Amino acid sequence: MVDHHTHLAPDDDPLDEAVLSVETITAHVAAAMDRGLDAVCVTEHVYRFRVAKPAWAHPYWQGQTEWDIDAYWEALAEAKEIGFPLRIGIECDWLPEHQDVLVDALAGRPWDVILGSIHWVDEGAVDYDLYSAFDVIDPDALWRGYVDRYTRAALSGQFDVMTHADLPKSFGPLPSAAVLDESYDAIADALAEAGCCAEISTAGLRKAAREIYPGPDLLSRLCARGVPVVLSSDAHEPENVGFAFDQALRAAAEAGYSEVMEFSGRDRRAVPLG
Ligand SMILES: [Zn+2]
Ligand SMILES: [Zn+2]
Predict the structure, then answer these.
(1) What are the structural domains, with CATH classification, of the chain?
(2) How close is the Cα of 45 to the center of ligand 1, in Å?
(3) CA separation for the pair 77, 86 (Å, rounded)
(4) For a tag on the chain, would you pick the N or C end, based on fewer CB atoms within 10 A?
């Protein structure tokens, strides 16, 4: 088992470049081993890196963007070279107006996996209270905007895995049943058409929704359309690496999956469940 989505930087001090140290990486890998994982993939947010700064003028983005992407790469590549069971990835936002900046920022490196994420719609953040879109638009409009971006990101072909598919459920009221239904279908259709993986993320269990991303209804639709899945914790601290993977595996089986995917060098291979 591989955890495909983890962060070295804690949420409360995300710009401390000291996390790119042997000590932090060792603690991260040790946590994965303790949980019985075979490997852990580090996927820091693209907006941590100065190279992404021109992508977006929003004060949140500008304020989060101070790391050197070369230092990130070198710290992980060094650890991998000496035998740490690590994969090197990145969690990349989809900003349709500025995506060329992000594509350039990622170019030229042999990533193990590139995750695609929607954290914002036009009106504000999906998962961040300070600039929350829920303060500005109603849940139906928010979900429609979110799904529009999510599906376009999946179909862009830039990402190996699309993350936390029903993320807005943890940060505001759900939309109407009709909008939720059309949202699930649109997400499942786009991922299937794109040949892109989804993640089963246990982060949702630690958020207000107290439910895995994606929930059982959406996960069943993904399975029915043949969308492959990977396992992830979205840990921002070592103790959550591999968090509740027993529940993730159960959710996968209940949705109808008999295998999960593992990425290395942006190639995926199937690993049977059970
Ligand atoms: Zn995310
Ligand atoms: Zn993440």
Answers:
(1) 2-272 (3.20.20.140)
(2) 8
(3) 9
(4) C
